[in-house]
Amino acid sequence: MEEEKKEVSEVKETKDAKEAKKGKSEGKKSFLNENSLEIITVILLGITALLTAWASYVGSIHGGNQATNYATSNNISSDGNSLYNSAVQTLSQDMSIWNTIASYEVEILYADSVKDNAAIEANVWKLQWFCEDNITDDMAAAIGYDSEKFNDGNNDTQDILNWLKDDKAITSPFTQEFIDKYFEEANAKLAEADKVIEQGKEDNANGDKFSLVTVLYSVALFMLGIVGVFKNTTNKKLVLAVSVVCLIIAVVFMVTIPLPTSGGIFG
Fold this sequence. Notes:
Distance between the termini: 91 Å
Structural class: mainly alpha
Largest sheet: none
Number of domains: 1
C-alpha cells in the first residue's frame, strides 16, 4: 500500500514538473503575444505618422526655398546683365576716347618732329582739355597721364612731350586685364546668381529625396495598418518585421539628407 502511494506521489511530481516546465516555456514565448503585437504596432504607427509629417514639412520647405532661390537668381541675373551691358557701353565709349587721345598724340609727335611749335601748343591744349573732361582715372593710370602735373600751368607742353617719349603713353591700354576690369562688377553679380541657382537646384534635389522618404514612410504605415487584418500570429510578425525594415530604411535615408538652410523653424 505504501509502495502504491509512493508511485502515485512520484507520478504526480513528474506531472507537476512537466506542467511547470511547460508553463515556463510558454512564458518565454509570450513576449510577442497578441497583446504585445498590438501595442508595438500602435506605437510604431504613431512614430511613423510623426516622421511622415516631419518629412513632408521639411520637403515643403526645400520646395519653397527652391522657388525663392530661382526667383532671386533671376533678379540677380537681370542686374548682372544690366551691369554687363553698361560695361560694354562704357568700354566702347572709353575706346573712342582713347582713339581721340591717340590722334592728338600723333599730331603732337608729328609737330615736334618738324619743329612746328604752334601746332605743338595747339594740340597740347586740345589734349589737355579733352583729357580734363573725358579721361577716366583708370585709363589715366594705364597710360601714365598725370592730370595735375600736365595742367598746373608750369611747363605743361614740355611735360607732355616728355610723357610721350614713354611707350606706355602711346600704347593702347586695352589689354585683356584692363578690359576685364570693366566687367568685374557684372561678373560678380552673375557669379552670385549662379551660386543662388545652384542652391536652388540643391533644394530641388533634397526636396525630391524627402518626397521619396515620405513614400517609404507611407509603405511602412500601410504595412503597419494591415497587421491587425491577419489572424495568424506568424503572419502578423512577418508583416510587422517588413514594416520595421521599411521604417529603418526611411529613417537612415532621411538623416543623410541636408536640412534646409532657411525657412520654417530653420530661420
